[in-house]
Amino acid sequence: MFLFILSAVCAQAQAVSDSNGVGFVRINADYRLDELLDRYKEMNEGKQIQGYRLQLFSGDRKGAFDLKAGFISQFPKLPCNVIYEAPDFKVLVGNYRTQMEAERALQDIRPVFKAAFVVPALIDLPQLTVFSGQ
After folding, report:
1. Position 10 in a domain
2. pLDDT value at position 42?
3. C-alpha of 110 from chain center
4. Tens place of pLDDT for every residue, the chain, 134 residues?
5. pTM for this structure?
6. How many domains does the chain have?
7. Residues 6+ apart with CB under 8 A from 117
8. Which residues form the domain of 73?
9. Of 10, 25, 44, which residue is a domain's last?
């Protein structure tokens, strides 16, 4: 439905380059397109989908939060969560849609966190980035 509505909105694009020769595309679109994107973001905020994460730890609460702090200091851009699944606390990192994507990330993390492995999990939807045409 979203694509149908999106295709009904009239938009034009123009290739432009700045003074440094870097190219970008300027889109002149109907104001309703921005409203639609905002509504889409609101509807999907906080929703999760089936995907994969890397599990780094399973054990006591103190160990989980200590490991999370160490992970964030070494990989500040990756999301890191501590969840409780009785009787253990688990440290899960990343939001990967496919197992292959998770396996690639595991190769970067495993030299530091040797016990890490891929687990199926509910992941956060990726952020929708909207650039204004200003």
Report:
1. yes
2. 73
3. 20
4. 554 445 544 455 555 555 666 777 777 777 787 788 778 767 766 677 899 999 999 999 999 999 999 999 999 999 999 999 999 999 999 999 999 999 999 999 999 999 999 999 989 876 656 665 55
5. 0.62
6. 2
7. 54, 55, 106
8. 48-123
9. 44
Give me the amino acid identity at 7: S
Cβ 130 vs Cβ 34: under 8 Å: yes
Residues 53 and 115 in one domain: yes
Quote the pLDDT of residue 128.
Answer: 58
DSSP assignment of 44-83, as one string?
Answer: HTT-EEEEEEEEEEEE-HHHHHHHHHHHHHH-TTS-EEEE
- Look up residue 68 and give its two tokens: 């999370």
* DSSP 8-state assignment for residue 18: -
What does DSSP say about strands 88-96 and 80-85: parallel, antiparallel, or unpaired?
antiparallel
User: Is residue 63 within 8 Å of 91, Cβ to Cβ?
Assistant: no
In a domain, 132, yes or no: no
**Residue type at 40?**
Y
The CA distance from 60 to 126, in Å, is 30
